[in-house]
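<instruction>
Derive structure tokens from the sequence
<data>
Labelled lines for chain and fold:
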Amino acid sequence: MESTMRRRQSADPGRWVVLLLLTILALATIFPFVWMASTSVKPMGDVLGAPERLLPLTYDFSTYTKIWSEVPFARYFVNSLIFSSSVVVIALFLNSLAGYAFARLPFKGRNLLFILILCTMMIPFQVIMTPLFIIIYKLGMIDTYQGLIIPKAADAFGIFMMRQFFLTLPRDLEESGRIDGANEFRIYFRIMLPLCKPAFVTLGVFIFMGNWNDLLYPLLLTNSEQFRPIQAAIALFAGKYGTDYSFVMTGLLLASVPTIIAYICAQRFFVSGIAMTGIK
């Protein structure tokens, strides 16, 4: 019986069509990274003379040493790590607090306030960047870590995602905590948070990748190399080394490594976190 079912599955043409389409999509997704890595080790003659050639005739790895010596690339890298990691930690805490309140605590105007928060997701950053710059400037936080981190400390998408996840948890858990005399903060920290690992990891990856790859926001709030994140720095030195495409591609390739590592490490929680968030 089992062997018959396996033969039917292997003979199902629809399954092979889906597999073929997924393979094509995977190759299309991977190709830009392959092309970027190939360009980073091409001599300038190959880059300008035959840009369509995927594999270089000769390999030149000098840009990987040049990028560390000619620009403060390590400083940019550390700035992005501090900025992105700090935002992840603070945003996960604040978003989960707000999500728990909207999911579990009955208070007047809860639904209206939640809808207003969701409406902020439709406002593009270009609309608020001038008021944001004025506020940060008047607070004296331009070109500082706190000026980069604090405005990103919470967001509507994170609140929405955590609220949806808390809605999937059974109410018997918190009721048992109340029977034992626990207050809401104790229920949140001791009962709810340990169950939120898939949602935390998924949201953390989203926040980390979004802030690591952000360009306009750090360009707006930083002036010096001491606090400039890596994407803003690459955008600026791309103008200085604009014709040296191997150099620019090397910087982009190195900048993409942390986000790839973060996704690979969190992959086993990623799908379950998204799926469980949408159950309710």
About this structure: The mean pLDDT is 83. The chain has two domains: 2-60, 72-277.
